Amino acid sequence: MDQKLLAESILNQIDLNAQEKELFFSFVKLKKVKKKQVLLLEGDVSRYALFVVSGCLRSYCVDENGSPYIQQFAPEGWWIGDMYSLITGKPGHLVVDAIFDSEIAMIAKVDLNRLYKEIPQLNIYFRILAENALVYYQSRAMENLRLTARERYERFCTRYPSLIACLPQKQVAAYIGVTPEFLSKMLNQ
């Protein structure tokens, strides 16, 4: 598996010398995951930050009726996980699984904490990721409160243009907060 995409993601934000890059990647574990493979269950403590090298992951919670509510899709080049659990060390609320066969890069939280001390620039990179995640989740919350289903669908298309053609409608419906039947009717109007 290629670490090039992760290196590009990091180097687009910060500068690392060859020794720092080598140290960082010595802690990165690469893993292939199959479609529908679960990486994190609700109630688990998240111990890894996950970067999608190829494929697509999603994070979601399930309501009392068994209906999923997708919080995030993570196509190639995106980070994903249960930030609450990763940061607090407490059991999480999200499930993370693979929508397609995927390749991921994983870095353990304990290793990240060590690397923050040894490579201070990584603090900046992961702070930028955390800030972007905060903006994303705040935007999602406001969209769910203020926008119509059609407007939420349009935002989905803008946010995830590479996924529009390849995701099943039930996945898109779970992301925008409607039933698959409602989404189908809405798109056919």
Automatic annotation (TrEMBL):
<dbReference type="InterPro" id="IPR000595">
    <property type="entry name" value="cNMP-bd_dom"/>
</dbReference>
<dbReference type="InterPro" id="IPR018490">
    <property type="entry name" value="cNMP-bd_dom_sf"/>
</dbReference>
<dbReference type="Pfam" id="PF00027">
    <property type="entry name" value="cNMP_binding"/>
</dbReference>
<dbReference type="InterPro" id="IPR014710">
    <property type="entry name" value="RmlC-like_jellyroll"/>
</dbReference>
<protein>
    <recommendedName>
        <fullName>Cyclic nucleotide-binding domain-containing protein</fullName>
    </recommendedName>
</protein>
<feature type="domain" description="Cyclic nucleotide-binding">
    <location>
        <begin position="31"/>
        <end position="117"/>
    </location>
</feature>
